[in-house]
Design brief:
The protein contains 4 helices and 11 strands, in the order ββββββββαβαβαβα. The relative contact order is 0.09. The longest helix is centred in the middle third of the chain and has 17 residues. Helix 1 links the parallel strand 8 and strand 9. Among the domains are: 64 residues, SH3 type barrels (Roll), CATH 2.30.30; 87 residues. By secondary structure, the protein is α/β, with parallel strands linked by helices. The chain has a 4-stranded antiparallel β-sheet with strand order 2-3-4-5, with no helix packed on it.
Length: 230
């Protein structure tokens, strides 16, 4: 006769008997997985801070904790961080998702962005430089805007040869707004965009509390702004 009682039915692991076991699967880009608790299916587009980011067929993203509880082809898996250091997801200084590091450099487009002021141009480069190089757009420093009408005319904007201009102190009633209006009347249509901020210098966009002041100093109109501030 068969001995049906030779082993302990409550021995460790009895809860998992008869159930499929999860296998460890290292995360990799474009790996398609399913979260069975929600029915969400998506491809892996990155992972960071213990989360895996999935993208569904509509392009929407959703994050899940890395670990067990996923299915691949109907089988349970335990998603694991690869042994190599760092995340597969990298961001530029502006916070956007960076492209592959091996991606070939883009040839610069004929279009340009002119930025008034050295500090402004350096700021644009520091924050958005990687993003602009990714699409082949070059930022150029523009010393001043007093001759902006001729600067734009020399550039000869047109289809595929567009120009963006970023200037300081673009508020109603200022010299800057009057010159921008003259450029707008130059007949360049949709090929030129002039925009700016309301500050005399871009660093005024920083809250003065960040450096322990209640407000930025008010400099008389007949005094050099930078020297007056110092």
């Amino acid at each position: 006769m068969a001995d049906r009682y030779s082993s302990d039915v409550l021995q460790p692991g009895w809860q998992q008997q008869g159930r499929p076991r999860s296998t460890d699967v290292p995360l990799q880009l474009d790996l398609v997985v399913e979260d069975p608790s929600t029915g969400y299916v998506g491809a892996v587009v990155g992972w960071e801070n213990g989360l895996v980011i999935l993208e569904d067929r509509r392009g929407a993203h959703r994050a899940f904790p890395v670990g067990p509880g996923f299915w691949i082809d109907g089988k349970p898996v335990n998603l694991c961080i690869p042994s190599r250091q760092g995340s597969a997801r990298r961001h530029t200084a502006s916070g956007s998702l960076a492209g592959p590091e091996h991606e070939a450099a883009r040839v610069a487009l004929p279009s340009r962005i002119y930025v008034e002021g050295r500090h402004d141009a350096e700021l644009v480069e520091k924050v958005w430089g990687d993003d602009l190089r990714h699409v082949g757009v070059v930022v150029e420093y523009m010393g001043g805007m007093d001759d902006l009408v001729n600067i734009v005319a020399d550039f000869r904007p047109g289809p595929g040869h567009r120009l963006g201009v970023l200037i300081d102190h673009l508020v109603a009633g200022t010299k800057e707004s009057r010159i921008a209006g003259q450029v707008a009347k130059g007949g360049y249509g949709d090929h030129v965009m002039i925009t700016g901020h309301r500050f005399i210098d871009v660093w005024q966009a920083i809250k003065p509390e960040r450096i322990g002041r209640k407000a930025w100093p008010e400099v008389p109109m007949d005094e050099d702004f930078k020297l007056g501030t110092l």
